[in-house]
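Please, structure for the following, as tokens.
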Amino acid sequence: MRVLVIEDDPRMAGLLHRGLARQGWATTTVSNATAAQDAALAAHWDAVVCDVMLPDMSGVELCRWLRRNDVWAPVLLLTARTAVGDRVAGLDAGADDYMGKPFAFAELEARLRALVRRGPVERPTTVVAGPLQLDPAAHEATVNGTPLELSPKEFALLHLFLRHPGEVLSRSTILDHVWDYAYDGGSNVVDVYVRYLRRKLASQGADRMLVTVRGAGYRLVVEK
């Protein structure tokens, strides 16, 4: 199995290289994102181990670059930053797994084996429906390439609709996914934020994509 290790700390890079080699992995180690980009395109890899804190580009950005360039080898990110937001950013960028430092080498190798068994799967990092495109990792949304300025809740709401195009989403479903609390029948927060989102979409002529289904909820209409 061929694994590409991207780690700028010489000591950690050496430990990873020697440890994986002892377990039978054909290991190539590079110390920055630029070298990683060249290596990723030059050969087939069964897995990639990438540090998040690289000198010339973050590992999260590198992961997004790999996916945009059709490199679908499973990616395991390594970092001392283990906050939920950091893990979410990495996974949204197309990574397959995330390990905090320090770590047990046996666990790292076990996770790599699991990723290799799963194999490469094409997973676009952006969500697209008609003229709408949303990039969760970059927190960017566009209509026909024109950026939308959205609040965090508006962004989360649009993300939910884009993941369920054509489906009727009830107010309770929207509350559960965007606000993460049980539906209060007397609350109109969903209706308020749908209006906010429609105004933003209207500025780009896309407000008719978000329709009200009377008595049921809301639906994102995508013309084929």
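The mean pLDDT is 88. The first strand starts at residue 2 and ends at 6.
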